[in-house]
C-alpha cells in the first residue's frame, strides 16, 4: 500500500513517519517538499504518489499568531484539507486528518462527545472546524481524529516550554482555569497506525474507513489544568538541575491574543468501542514520555 504522509517534521508527523512505516510504502513530505498554501502543488504531489492512504499531519498550530494571519491559517487548515479530500475522492483513497479540542467553546462541564456542537473561540479553532467540514462533505473515506494538548520531546509544545522555563525562572506561573487532557504525540501515532492495520481484514483502507471512518475524539484519559500539567512535568522530568515551584494563576493574569476554552476534555469512548484504541491516563503517558528523555 502506498501511503502519503504530509507534515513529516511536526511533532505528530515525526511520530507518524515511524509508526506508519511498517504498514506500507511511505512517502513522507516536509513543508519544504510540499507547501500546503500552494493548491496546485498539493494536487500534483498526491497525483504523483498515487496513495491508497493520505495522512495529513501538517497544520498551522500557532494559536496566538493565528489571530493575525487569518488568510494563511485558513489556507493551511481549511483549504488544503479540502483539496486533499477532493484528491482522495478522485483516487479512491482514504484520508486521515487531525483536528482539535479548540473547536469547542469550553462551556460544557462533562467530556465533549463527537455529537456536541462546536463553537470555536479563536481563529485556529475556526479554521480547524472548517477543515473538518470540508473533509466530511467531500471525502468518501476518511478518519478525523480530534486531539487535545499534544506534547512530545520534539517540536514546539507546552512540555518543551516548561522544561526550558524550569532552567530560567525561580518560579513558574501557570493558568489553572483551563481544563483538558495532555496527550503524547507518540500514542496518537501508534493508535493511528493500529487503526490502519485493522483495514487488512476489511478489504483495504478505503473500504474500511468508508464503513467505519468519520469523526472521532482521541485523547488521554483523565483531566488536568495547564498548571497541573506543568507541576507534573517539573516533578517528574529526569535530570532537572532545579525544580522551581509552579504557582496556579487565573487566565486573566496571563493575557494572550487568542481566547482558549475553559474546559475541553474529550470523550474518546467512541474510538475505543469501534477501533479498540484507548489511551492511558495523561499522567501515565507523561511518565513514559519523560522516561524517553533518558539516554
Ligand atoms: N499541538 C497540539 O497541541 C495539537 C495539535 N492538534 C492537531 O494535530 C495535528 C498535528 O499537530 P502538531 O504535530 O502538534 O503540530 P506541529 O506544529 O508540531 O506540526 C505541524 C507541521 O505542519 C507544518 N506546516 C505548517 N504550515 C505548513 C504549510 N504551509 N505547508 C506544509 N506544512 C506546513 C509545520 O512545518 P514546519 O516544521 O516547517 O513548521 C509542521 O511540521 C494538527 O492537525 C493539529 O491541528 C490537535 C490538538 C492539539
Ligand atoms: C508557558 C505558559 C503558558 N501558560 C498558559 C497560556 C495558555 O493559556 C496555556 C497553554 O499554553 P500554550 O499557549 O502553550 O498552549 P496552546 O498553544 O493553547 O495549546 C493548544 O495548541 C493547539 C495547537 C491545540 O490544538 C490545543 O489542543 C492546545 O494544545 O498555558 C501559562 O499560564 N504560563 C506559562 O508559563
Ligand atoms: Mg501553542
TrEMBL record:
Residue intervals of the RmlD-like substrate binding domain: 1-293
Spell out the reaction equation it catalyses. Answer: dTDP-beta-L-rhamnose + NADP(+) = dTDP-4-dehydro-beta-L-rhamnose + NADPH + H(+)
Q: Which of UniProt's keywords are assigned here? A: NADP, Oxidoreductase
Instruction: Give the EC number(s) under which this enzyme is classified.
Output: 1.1.1.133
Q: Cofactor comment in the record?
A: Binds 1 Mg(2+) ion per monomer.
Cite a single Pfam family from the UniProt record. Answer: RmlD_sub_bind
Q: Which cofactor does it need?
A: Mg(2+)
Q: In which pathway does it act?
A: Carbohydrate biosynthesis; dTDP-L-rhamnose biosynthesis
Q: Tell me which SUPFAM superfamilies the record gives.
A: NAD(P)-binding Rossmann-fold domains
NADP is among the record's keywords? yes
Q: Report the top EC class in one word.
A: oxidoreductase
Q: Which InterPro entries match?
A: dTDP_dehydrorham_reduct (IPR005913), NAD(P)-bd_dom_sf (IPR036291), RmlD-like-bd (IPR029903)
Q: Which CDD domains match?
A: dTDP_HR_like_SDR_e (cd05254)
Q: Which GO terms describe its molecular function?
A: dTDP-4-dehydrorhamnose reductase activity
Q: What does this protein do?
A: Catalyzes the reduction of dTDP-6-deoxy-L-lyxo-4-hexulose to yield dTDP-L-rhamnose.
Q: Which family does it belong to?
A: Belongs to the dTDP-4-dehydrorhamnose reductase family.
Protein name as annotated = dTDP-4-dehydrorhamnose reductase
Amino acid at each position: 500500500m502506498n501511503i502519503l504522509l504530509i507534515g513529516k517534521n511536526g511533532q505528530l508527523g515525526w511520530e507518524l513517519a515511524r509508526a506508519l512505516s511498517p504498514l506500507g510504502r511511505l512517502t513522507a513530505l516536509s513543508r519544504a517538499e510540499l507547501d500546503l498554501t500552494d493548491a496546485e502543488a498539493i494536487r500534483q504531489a498526491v497525483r504523483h504518489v498515487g496513495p491508497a492512504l493520505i495522512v495529513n499531519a501538517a497544520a498551522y498550530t500557532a494559536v496566538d499568531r493565528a489571530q493575525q494571519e487569518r488568510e494563511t491559517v485558513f489556507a493551511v487548515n481549511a483549504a488544503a484539507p479540502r483539496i486533499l479530500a477532493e484528491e482522495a475522492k478522485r483516487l479512491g483513497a482514504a484520508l486521515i486528518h487531525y483536528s482539535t479540542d479548540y473547536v469547542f467553546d469550553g462551556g460544557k462541564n462533562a467530556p465533549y462527545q463527537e455529537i456536541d456542537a462546536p463553537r470555536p473561540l479563536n481563529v485556529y479553532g475556526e479554521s480547524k472546524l472548517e477543515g473538518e467540514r470540508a473533509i466530511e462533505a467531500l471525502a468518501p473515506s476518511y478518519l478525523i481524529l480530534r486531539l487535545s494538548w499534544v506534547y512530545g520531546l520534539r517540536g514546539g509544545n507546552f512540555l518543551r516550554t516548561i522544561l526550558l522555563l524550569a532552567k530560567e525562572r525561580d518560579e513558574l506561573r501557570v493558568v489553572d482555569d483551563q481544563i483538558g487532557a495532555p496527550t503524547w504525540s507518540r500514542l496518537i501515532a501508534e493508535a493511528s497506525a493500529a487503526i490502519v492495520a485493522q483495514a487488512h481484514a476489511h478489504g483495504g483502507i478505503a473500504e474500511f474507513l468508508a464503513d467505519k471512518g468519520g469523526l472521532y475524539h482521541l485523547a488521554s484519559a483523565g483531566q488536568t489544568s495547564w498548571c497541573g500539567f506543568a507541576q507534573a512535568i517539573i516533578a517528574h522530568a529526569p535530570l532537572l538541575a532545579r525544580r522551581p515551584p509552579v504557582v496556579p494563576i487565573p487566565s486573566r493574569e496571563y493575557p494572550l491574543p487568542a481566547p482558549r476554552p475553559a474546559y475541553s476534555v474529550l470523550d474518546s469512548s467512541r474510538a475505543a468501542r469501534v477501533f479498540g484504541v484507548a489511551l492511558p491516563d495523561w499522567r501515565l503517558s507523561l511518565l513514559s514520555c519523560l522516561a524517553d528523555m533518558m539516554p
